[in-house]
Amino acid sequence: MRERLVNLWICVVSIVLTLLALEVLLRRTHLFGACLSCSEPDEEIGYRFTPNCEYWYNRENDHPITGRMNNYGWRDDEWALEKPENTYRVAVLGDSFVEAFQVELERTFLALAEKELNRTSANAFELMTFGRSGFTQSEELIVLRRDILRFKPDMVILFFFPGNDIAEVSRETAPNKSRPFFSVSDEGQLVLDTSFSNTSEYDMK
């Protein structure tokens, strides 16, 4: 019995050490495209980026794209809640085109546009990125009300992609039902349905 317990203990220790070594290997080398998740559950929009999370993205490019989410959980430079003086603040809302994980942060079209505006204008411009891959119009409206308006932007630009944005605005036509949807009440008011957050599919994610 003692010999069996010793052998069992050796097996357990060996398995644990092997898993730890594999964990370190995958974290350091990103072998097979392995990377840590940089998102967390959100009962209104499904998921959101984790603030200050370091990301590693290796798709649609010939090299990995790395960086850190800002303290509000968006792929952009750090922001102040209060708008800087003499600054024209523009919030840009959209899906993967705005998120732009395919290129380095300083090479996104918003970063380039902000740099060019500040180079050619006497006014200061701040372009704020509110992009997440797969965003629908419903999720974007929630983000506008909940996250964007508190920054008091002078302008909000919405990127609209008809290839999927039209279909995904309705539960009847959206291929993915595990997300929020708006309906219109008899009084003509928008009614938000976030029942997806009570499903087993959401719990699994």
| Regions with little confidence, pLDDT below 50 for 5+ residues | none
Q: How many runs of DSSP E, i.e. beta strands?
A: 9
Strand coverage percent: 15-25%
Determine the mean pLDDT: 92
The coarse overall form would be globular
Q: Tell me the structural class.
A: alpha/beta
Number of self-contained structural domains:
2
Radius of gyration: 22 Å
Total count of helical runs of at least 4 residues = 6
Strand order of the largest sheet: 6-5-7
Distance between the termini: 43 Å
Major β-sheet profile: 3 strands, parallel
Sequence of secondary-structure elements: HEEEEEHHEHEHEEH
Helix content: 25-40%
Tag the structure with descriptive keywords.
single chain; 205 residues; alpha/beta; 2 domains; three-stranded parallel β-sheet; 6 helices; 21% strand
